[in-house]
Design goal:
Blueprint (H helix, E strand, L loop, with lengths): L1 H4 L4 E5 L2 E7 L5 E4 L7 E5 L1 H8 L5 H6 L4 E4 L1 H18 L3 H11 L26 H9 L5
Parallel strand pairs: 1-4
Antiparallel strand pairs: 1-2, 2-3, 4-5
Length: about 140
């Protein structure tokens, strides 16, 4: 994780709460009150986090369904995606993260879990056929092969 995010600072919003996170030079994760500039920002809600943890929705589907917002330059956004995938994979394998996920799920200060929200699309994100609007846009920009 440290290798992926490096010295960058990110703001994470969950429901109405936000924190800034970064790794120190010594490699420790620091969680801070939000302030100042950040390199990237992500926002979601508790239901989406639980759906991601339980495998009911993939990161790309959460983004396409506007359940997960990510902001930053292209490099920061790419690193955020990798960091999310590392966290999701690690949560299934690392006992300390499993306990943290269980505590999050059972937090008495948060609403009880509702039914999972599945992705809005049935097919893949990249359909094999070309959409007419997409074709017209590519043609107008001179980007068609």
């Amino acid at each position: 994780m440290r290798e992926v995010v490096g010295a960058r600072r990110a703001r994470i919003r969950l429901d109405d709460e936000a924190v800034d996170v970064r790794f120190t030079a010594g490699g420790s994760l620091r969680v801070l009150r939000p302030r100042g500039r950040v390199d990237g920002e992500g926002a979601t809600d508790r239901a989406t986090v639980l759906d991601l943890l339980d495998g009911h929705v993939e990161v790309v589907d959460a983004i396409l369904d506007a359940r997960l917002e990510v902001r930053g330059d292209a490099d920061a956004v790419a690193r955020i995606f990798v960091a999310i995938e590392i966290l999701l994979d690690s949560t299934a394998r690392i006992p300390a993260l499993q306990r943290l996920a269980r505590d999050f799920r059972l937090d008495p200060c948060r609403a009880l879990r509702e039914r999972p929200v599945r992705r809005s699309r049935r097919g893949s994100f990249r359909p094999t056929g070309e959409e007419p609007d997409e074709a017209a846009l590519l043609e107008r920009l001179g980007l068609r092969p």
